[in-house]
Amino acid sequence: MTTHYPTAPAEPARRVTREERRVLAGTLVGTTIEWYDFFIYAQAAAFVLTPLFFAPIASQNPGLAQVFSWASLGISFLFRPLGAIIAGHLGDKFGRKMVLVLTLFGMGTATVLIGLLPTYAQIGVGAPILLVLLRILQGFSAGGEWGGAALMAVEHAPRNKRGLFGSYPQIGVPIGMILATLFMFAVTNLTTKEQFLAWGWRIPFLSSVVLILVGYWIRKAVEESPVFKEMQLRKKESSAPLSQLFKGNTKEVVLAALIFAANNAAGYLVIAFFASYGVKTLHMQQSTTLVASLVGGFGWLVFTMLGGWISDKIGRVRTFQIGYAIIILWAIPMWFLLDTASLPLFTLAILILTMGLGPSYGPQSALYAEMFPARIRYSGVSIGYALGSIIGGAFAPMIAEMLLGGTGKSWTIGVYIAALALVSFIAVSMVPKSLQESDLHVEEVHEEFLAAHPEVEIPATVAEKLNRK
């Protein structure tokens, strides 16, 4: 069942307030830190996890061992929906602060422990088992993070800036990738190949303890602001049981998952697979492929912000369509540039791909928020995002490795990405364009909730909104 909202006149242009800037900073920093932890693992899976944790397979069949390494990357995605469900329940019962702290510490602790893990040579089969368990903890933590950050940004935005505001939690992904790549690049260049394999790879994982402390300090500051109190209230209002979500909004959940699938799949090629492909198949230097990934991360950042901003001008659906059209057209030809093993052409191939990734990612927070009614919005955007990541990015590097090994033709990976992008293009085209002008009904739900819970202290920002009604 599709829920239609009444439209409202456009808001006049105004300056971003101090509280809105704090919201944007809080969503950006939180997602950046958590995705740094996530991407450090992805890059380690590309370069070092195969010989260290899957040694017996690597000695007999290196290609199959790399498939196992990519599978360990993908398995965590299966636990994102569970993380989203439990985070919603805990947030309802104990408050948003605890959920934010738990997801931050869960992700960070898993990352640090991976840096301390003994290898297969030291403890045998226990090593890959512990690695997978910690990877599951990472996925569980990531599942509880994105929905709250996305809604916090979009629901505090002026109607004509939802896309721009919503792009802030989105750019945490490329910024996290840039930080992870820079760290990996530095360690790679400051150690020999033997040192990197022996202990150097652990440094980026162990460094996450610093980011945990920084992230906790920033989130503590947000928690003390009136905006955070309002966010706690929104969390109570908009988290719904799965039965209620799927009873009336199954179509929106399925569309949300399919819309995200292709972007997530293509994104994980940029994050991890291209660098591994350059080293292991094209015999490029690891530091060289990391430079290309770094440029790709900056391109992804710029085009994501641009995509969010443009979506406020030309529409969310049209912006997505432009992004996916670029991915469909470029998915196959880019491999002929990559296969030259020339750093400029290798980098150009990735950069052009990010021109499609940005428009199909920047407007996502705003689009998802507009797709779901307020009472189930948190659950809807979180579950849709988690399911889309399973369909798309969870096993994209593994599928790419299997296609390459099975056919020997790199361009077949492009066929897979183009086909997935076509599905996402069709899915986003089914979203009514009129939703962009809808009222998200945040104030109405505030009013109803407060009437039913007179014991709740009304935050200043909520009172101001209600008084204007």
Share in helix: over 70%
pLDDT under 50 segments (min length 5)? 1-10, 223-228
Distance between the termini: 29 Å
Give the C-alpha Rg.
Answer: 22 Å
Describe, in plain words, how this protein is organized in 3D.
With 469 residues, the chain is mainly alpha-helical. It has helices at residues 18-47, 49-53, 55-60, 62-74, 80-94, 96-116, 120-123, 126-143, 146-155, 162-190, 193-200, 202-206, 208-223, 226-238, 242-280, 286-314, 316-330, 334-338, 343-357, 364-371, 377-391, 396-407, 411-429, 442-452, 460-467. 79% of the residues lie in helices and 0% in strands. Residues 1-10 and 223-228 have low confidence and may be disordered.
Helices and strands in order, then pairings?
Blueprint: H1 18-47, H2 49-53, H3 55-60, H4 62-74, H5 80-94, H6 96-116, H7 120-123, H8 126-143, H9 146-155, H10 162-190, H11 193-200, H12 202-206, H13 208-223, H14 226-238, H15 242-280, H16 286-314, H17 316-330, H18 334-338, H19 343-357, H20 364-371, H21 377-391, H22 396-407, H23 411-429, H24 442-452, H25 460-467
Helix pairs in contact: 1-4, 1-6, 1-8, 1-9, 1-10, 1-13, 1-15, 4-22, 5-6, 5-8, 5-14, 5-21, 6-8, 6-13, 9-10, 9-21, 10-16, 10-20, 15-16, 15-19, 15-21, 15-22, 15-23, 16-17, 16-19, 17-19, 17-23, 20-21
Gist?
79% of the residues lie in helices and 0% in strands. It is mainly alpha-helical and 469 residues long.
